[in-house]
Amino acid sequence: MAMDKGLQIHQKINMTFLKMLILLLGIFLSSCQGDIGSSGEGAQQPQEPFEFSVFSAQEIYKTTDSINIWATLKYLGNDRYIKVWHGEPIILFSITDGKDIKLGGVRFLTKTSSILKRDKLYTYECSSILLDGNDPIVDYLNETNLEKGLFLPPGEYEVEAVGAFSLNDEDTTDIGLSAKTRFKVIDP
């Protein structure tokens, strides 16, 4: 009987310890939640004073119109200029209709540097996209001749521009900037 009481006490202690462990784990995980991105749109952590936007020349394009998209970046800090380290290109664009079409770019990991002057507006054109051979839009885009511009089939699209760079060549934590815009493509 004494052994059963000792076993019961031991089980209660183990159960209390397990409850405390689960509680501490829950507190730890909830405190880390904000690091991922509270907006639900990925890691977007501008740590320095930058202004970043993406634009479309039109809200509505015809299927015969070349899509014209660009992003702007402006350094607003206290220094006259800063040197940033980044892969090439510094800004990536992705275009999706939220269903089948997902177009994007590739950033080469070899780091290069750029100088950003305070209050100067830098413009980056969406000039290249990456096609996956299995993507259903590949045949359509091949028929439109990508050298003449980007032409898309009818639909509603979202463009995201993403900038990622660091303030020194040794830093592995990038400053992440992201901006989105939407446009529509209709038949002529």
Walk me through what this model shows.
This protein has 188 residues and is an alpha+beta fold. The protein folds into 2 domains: 2-35; 50-186, Sandwich (Immunoglobulin-like). The chain has helices at residues 2-32, 138-144, and strands at 50-56, 60-62, 69-75, 81-88, 91-96, 102-103, 108-117, 121-125, 155-165, 175-186. The strands form 3 sheets. A 5-stranded mixed sheet has the order 2-10-9-5-6, with no helix packed on it. Strand 5 (91-96) and strand 6 form a beta hairpin. The relative contact order is 0.21. The model is unreliable at 13-47 (pLDDT under 50).
Strand order of the largest sheet: 2-10-9-5-6
| Secondary structure tally, helices | 2
- What is the CATH fold-level name of the largest domain? Immunoglobulin-like
Unreliable sequence segments: 13-47
CATH architecture of the largest domain: Sandwich
In angstroms, what separates the terminal alpha carbons? 89 Å
Which of globular, elongated, flat, extended, rod-shaped describes the shape? elongated
Main sheet characteristics: 5 strands, mixed
Q: Give the integer mean of the pLDDT values.
A: 76
What is the CATH C-level name of the largest domain? Answer: Mainly Beta
Q: Please tell me the total number of domains.
A: 2
Number of strands: 10
Strand content: 35-45%
Helical content, roughly?
10-25%
> Which structural category fits the helices and strands?
alpha+beta
- What is the CATH homology-level superfamily of the largest domain? Immunoglobulins
- Give the H and E element order: HEEEEEEEEHEE
Radius of gyration: 25 Å
